[in-house]
Design brief:
heterodimer, A: mainly alpha, 68% helix, B: 501 residues, globular
Chain lengths: 151, 501
Amino acid sequence: MKKMNAGVWAGIVVFLIAAVFLVQSFQFSYKSELGPGPGFSPVWLSGILVVLSILYFLESVSGKNAGSGEEWPKGQALKNILFILACLAVFLILVSFTGFVVSGSIFLFLLLFKAYKWYTSLLISIGVSIILFWLFDGVLGVSLPVNGLGF
Amino acid sequence: MDSLSYLLQGFETAFTGWNLLYCLIGVSIGMFIGVLPGLGPVAGTALLLPITYGMDPISAIIMLSGIFYGSMYGGAITSILINTPGEAASVVTCIDGHQLAKQGRAGVALGVAAIGSFIGGIVAVLCLTFIGPPLANYALKFGPPEFFSIMMLGLLMLIALMGKSLVRGLIAAVFGLILSLIGMDPISGQIRFTFGQMELLDGLDFVIIAMGLFGLSEIFTNAENQMEIEKPEEIQGLLPRMDEWGPTLKSIGRGTGIGMVLGLIPGANAVIASLLSYSLEKKISNNPSRFGKGAIEGVAGPETANNAHSGAALIPLFTLGIPSSPTVAVILGAFIMHGLTPGPGLFTNNPDFVWGVIASMFIGNVILLILNMPLAGMWAKVAMIPYKLLFPLVLIVILIGTYSINNSLWDVVMTVIFGVIGYIMKKLDIPIAATVLAFVLGGQIESSLLQSLATSENGAMIFFTRPISGTIMGICFIILILSINSVIRNKRSMLSSDVEI
């Protein structure tokens, strides 16, 4: 084993999450007049998760049954994923101010920009956003976020 | 025959204009999703789930199940023509299917796949028609302990069959169960695990979990590598030679059997069905060396098996309310969304619904046969849609879809978070399907457990003293022991990891 493998860290994270849930679980009543109460399942489930996380940790430390063998993304692959996440963030921040059509167009344009010529990307982005807006807001009755001008 | 008259009524429902249209839309989208590498049936059904909000429940389920079985047809086309499986259940079809295509017999491979899929699909629906009602009737006698043990069996089977590590499978399932606890407890009104967030009072929406864990995480995984797609092979002629009909039909028969049986078992998914069928065909062949070099049985068996599986997988859903695979879990989510309680009562309480959907599946399979036989070449072109154009469109549909649940951006943010969690789970080889299945069943598992314990006089013994639930619990323990054994003997590497995505 070269370094701490990802499973070890994952085991620790799962343990922490399970511990938080377990502590919370004790606030709910374990019993009710009819039998087990709302605290029954939370206590057991988070308790079991604590035990499982420890087993996971041990399994990963020993290196047995180690991960899927899939590599964690590096270089370009990591950049691609972070870029998508950044685009999602931009969309989520913009959408409340600019409405769906504008933010959707920007979102699509950012993602398509590298693959196509800028005018093609722009056309696809605006076209798709308007069609989707019409389809969902107009036809399917989902009210999408809009700007002051109504789109 | 009672079933027959109900079925005829079902055809009346299914043949109305709108339902016929939704069936056509469903199977076409299914084909589309099946054909496109990088978009599978789970992500596809999850993606369209929010769109069905405003629809009539019958139409909604007709469309969603159409996507499910339609995608099984579509997957074969790309496997054969461009050696890229459109979805996981068609991976083995690549082996011999693409070899046949290289020998100029792509048409034959496609034809056999379509015929096999059709036969497998129709037999499975027939089975649902005639086995479904008596099974549901029998299950009406089940009380909370029986349902609890059946759900446990379903979850355990899934965990036992997936991934290399039993511990990680269990973590995935318990994680899903805990997620299902979030929100207000329906029995006591106690608010659990909301961390002060108002939005969590009603719990996490299933669409968020399904779209995030299955849909978004898939896009992140695909973003890692550039997808290169080969040029499709030419198609000529669709039917096999005279002397090939015999062995082909026999493989189709065996594939149907394997698919049916595995479809009934919760947790055994379509990928396992097609893998098993392929290895069986190879094993019983007179000349196993032909496999891998364009053996027609290697296409006929697995393609039939995965379709028979997808039809049969709906039997436990309709009769017991238990999903046997991730896609069926999404359909179960749709049931709940539309106010239907899946389970044995469905056949008696909502006969219009059940028989309408079953009848639509006969129609859908016929439509798919037509879509596949003469139009296969057109679908191969669909696979050529560049992924760089496709994924931004899928992303924006995910954004709108999750927004539409409650018209809130909060849900969209949660979906993105679950997308990242799903991606990390994939990297760590923690089976996502187990989380989603556990999440869907979580509410029912808890209520059946609490009800059983409340009526029990001697605690947890109630699960073992009643004959049916006792037997099922016994099977659960055997599965658990066998899986622990497989861990100790380190024999789990041959098992498929997260599949059917």
